[in-house]
Amino acid sequence: MATFHLIEDNDRILVGLSGGKDSLLLTEILARRAQIHHPRFSVEAVHVRMENIHYEIDTSYLQRFCDSLGIPLHIVTTRFETGKGKDGTLDERKQKSPCFLCSWMRRKQLFNLAQTLGCNKIALGHHQDDLIHTALMNLFFQGRFDTMSARLKMRKMPITIIRPLCLMSEDDIAHYAEARHYEKQKKLCPYENDSHRTDVRQLYMAIRQVSPEARQSIWRAIESAGKLIEE
Question: How far apart (Å, rounded) are the C-alpha atoms in residues 66 and 206?
Fold first, then answer.
């Protein structure tokens, strides 16, 4: 928070709460941090349900979790279309990957609700491994070295995206989630293992076997390239 100046006085923060360990941790630390008087900010959470994906989260658990932290929880339902033609077959000219479409629609709902609630910041639970994976994906598949920002100020709306977990490793989050007894949600998404991100995750694990310092080296490259803050 201090390194990237993520939170200021009078911020109203909307947290994307998917139900996974990352978003649960993010919700918890922001709710607890908000109880400290400097800086003064408020926190609300939102869970977005995707109507046409069989990925059901126990929202009663999420509600109890937020109630225990004293923050409001909003539940929004949406859906996406996969570019199928009238005959039910895929139209390759219109087709985007289901993961892209799902993420796009979830993000759209976050922006809409944030503006409705008067929130000026949206907090997402991406950790350091996520940012490294994204940098590798962009390098291998897009031919550019770029990643998700720790702080990103939107140009078309008065909202800033922040990623307060960006310096934390996924392993540390997993250990904390286990210690806090977070409930594990059943992952039923049919597209979960069918994406470039899954391939890059496996490649990154192989790279770390060859070079244990790969995490630090890639992260230094991301910092040196100035990719973590975008105004």
Answer: 37
CA 14 – CA 231 distance, rounded (Å): 19
Q: Is residue 1 part of a domain?
A: no
Token pair listed for 106: 């979830």
Secondary element (H or E) of residue 33: helix 21-33
Question: CB atoms < 10 A from the CB of 160, how many?
Answer: 21
d(CA 122, CA 112): 11
pLDDT band at 93 (very low <50, low <70, confident <90, very high): very low
Q: Report residue 36 as tokens.
A: 């400290």
- Interatomic CA distance for residues 136 and 145, integer angstroms: 8
Does residue 4 belong to any structural domain of this protein? no
Would residue 131 count as lying in a domain? yes
CB atoms within 10 A of CB 1: 14
pLDDT tens across 125-160, in order?
Answer: 999 999 999 999 999 999 999 999 999 999 999 999
- Distance from C-alpha of 167 to C-alpha of 32, rounded to nearest angstrom: 19
By residue range, what is the domain housing residue 44?
Answer: 11-230
**pTM, 2 dp:** 0.90
Give the closest residue to 177 by CA, choosing from 1, 16, 26.
26
Characterize 3-13 residue by residue with b for buried, 16 or more Cβ atoms within 10 angstroms of its Cβ, and e for exposed. Answer: ebebbeeebeb
User: How many domains in the chain?
Assistant: 1
If we measure between CA atoms, which residue out of 78, 73, 21, 83 comes closest to residue 55?
78
Dihedral pair phi/psi, residue 78, rounded to 5°: -145, -175
* CATH assignment at residue 121: 3.40.50.620
99 and 191 Cβ atoms separated by less than 8 Å: yes
